[in-house]
Write a sequence for this structure.
């Protein structure tokens, strides 16, 4: 009778060990999957931010080059028309208007960049929320499976104790 009891206890211990290993494997797999999702989203977001910054950098550089070109033209014109004060004054006003336009263009670009970056940030925030919700659901499912696997052996043990073999 005691040999049966020890055999039965060993079988229960083996079942518990097997279930624990199964749960550990499932938990590890779930955590790896979650980590991979987070890393993929993060890399994607980082790439989008870098691309947007590069696009705007190119636009800024173009405007600054135009601006520098305008400044260089202004210097060249000043040398040519130094003796003609009125002509120089008219040209100066024209250049001020041109630089004002460039500044206005830069301001518009900055405003558009900020707006676009905010929209991108909101999109990333929504993506992060979605991923976190998915992870919470997976964790809830994992918790439910752990609970089911934990309750199941107890129920089997109770049954075996009430109904010996």
């Amino acid at each position: 009778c005691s040999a049966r009891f020890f055999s039965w206890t060993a079988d229960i211990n083996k079942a518990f060990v097997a279930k624990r290993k199964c749960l550990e494997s499932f938990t590890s797999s779930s955590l790896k999957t979650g980590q991979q999702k987070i890393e993929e989203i993060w890399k994607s977001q980082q790439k989008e931010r870098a691309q947007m910054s590069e696009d705007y950098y190119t636009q800024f550089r173009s405007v600054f080059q135009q601006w520098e070109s305008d400044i260089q033209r202004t210097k060249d014109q000043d040398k040519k028309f130094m003796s003609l004060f009125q002509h120089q004054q008219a040209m100066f006003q024209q250049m001020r208007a041109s630089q004002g336009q460039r500044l206005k263009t830069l301001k518009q670009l900055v405003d558009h960049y900020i707006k676009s970056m905010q929209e991108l940030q909101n999109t990333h925030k929504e993506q992060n929320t979605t991923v976190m919700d998915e992870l919470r659901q997976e964790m809830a499912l994992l918790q439910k499976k752990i609970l089911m696997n934990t309750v199941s052996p107890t129920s089997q043990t109770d049954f075996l104790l009430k109904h010996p073999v």
Observations:
- The first helix runs from residue 2 to 80.
